[in-house]
Design a protein that fits this description.
single chain; alpha/beta
Length: about 280
């Protein structure tokens, strides 16, 4: 049985103590892919870690709120995570498309604004666009509803393909009023104005959280890390967790994290240890 790890930074230790000292005011927010679910070659095959649901449902009743904050459509994250109808997760919130969409377990419904017209325009152009980069065979398009992503994980040289496509895709996105969100061998074209940092801050204010834990694994989580750092300066303690072992962790995230855990399995163990510690106090 794993004990609760000690954060590497004083700010992280303060954040953890605030969570443990007043769990009913604590907000726990987690990314999905790479954090609750292992990274796989085909995103459609991604599923939450086998023990993730029990860890979340065990912790959720003891804290103010548990939320999943993901770049995926909210409904897709709910299906792949198996979050609907789980005892203990009756108040779970899934903030999809970086917070643009919201699924509430209480209603089982997704709320969202109208889609950005630039996404449809980019979607129509991308197949021909990628044909012009035929040397990078294996790059493929993922349809995400309110966004579209280009993956290079299956290319003959995944990192070279990623770098070669990054600037041209940014130009394509700009022409249609979109931005590019880079990740681990994926470039997502999506509307501007909402990111994980904005979404996290808004939800903290909505529920009146007195402390926050955020766990993520990729570049798209940096805005959420920045939001937690901002909240700390405003007097709301926070704990930043990077999901990824020493070989896989995204450097920019790991350097700013208070804790680095061994991927989704490490996140699950952290949640389990947090639950045991909260319940034992």
């Amino acid at each position: 049985m794993d004990s609760l790890p000690t954060p590497l930074t004083q700010a992280g230790r303060d954040g953890l103590e605030a969570i443990l000292g007043r769990p009913r005011g604590a907000l726990v927010v987690l990314d999905f892919d790479g954090t609750l679910a292992p990274i796989v070659a085909d995103p459609e095959q991604a599923r939450a870690h086998p023990e993730a649901l029990s860890a979340l449902s065990g912790l959720a009743p003891a804290v103010a709120s548990v939320a999943v904050l993901t770049g995926r459509p909210a409904g897709v994250a709910v299906r792949h995570g198996g979050f609907a109808g789980v005892s203990g997760l009756e108040h779970l919130v899934v903030l999809g498309h970086y917070g643009t969409e919201r699924w509430d377990a209480g209603t089982g419904e997704v709320s969202a604004p109208d889609p950005h017209p630039g996404v449809a325009a980019v979607r129509a152009e991308l197949p021909e666009f990628l044909e012009r980069f035929g040397a990078w065979k294996g790059a493929w398009i993922e349809e995400k509803g309110r966004a579209v992503a280009v993956h290079t994980r299956r290319a003959s040289d995944p990192q070279a393909a990623f770098e070669a496509l990054r600037e041209p895709l940014a130009d394509l996105a700009t022409r249609h009023g979109l931005i590019v969100e880079p990740g681990r061998l994926v470039l997502e074209l999506r509307p501007p104005g909402m990111d994980k940092g904005v979404a996290l801050e808004e939800y903290v204010r909505e529920i009146g959280a007195t402390s926050v834990l955020y766990a993520g694994d990729d570049l798209g989580d940096l805005p959420a890390f920045a939001a937690v750092e901002k909240l700390r300066r405003q007097g709301i303690p926070g704990l930043l967790v990077c999901s990824g072992n020493s070989a896989e962790a995204v450097t920019e995230l790991a350097e700013r994290a208070d804790l680095v855990v061994d991927g989704p399995a490490g996140v699950v163990r952290l949640l389990q240890a947090l639950q045991r510690t909260v319940l034992s106090r």
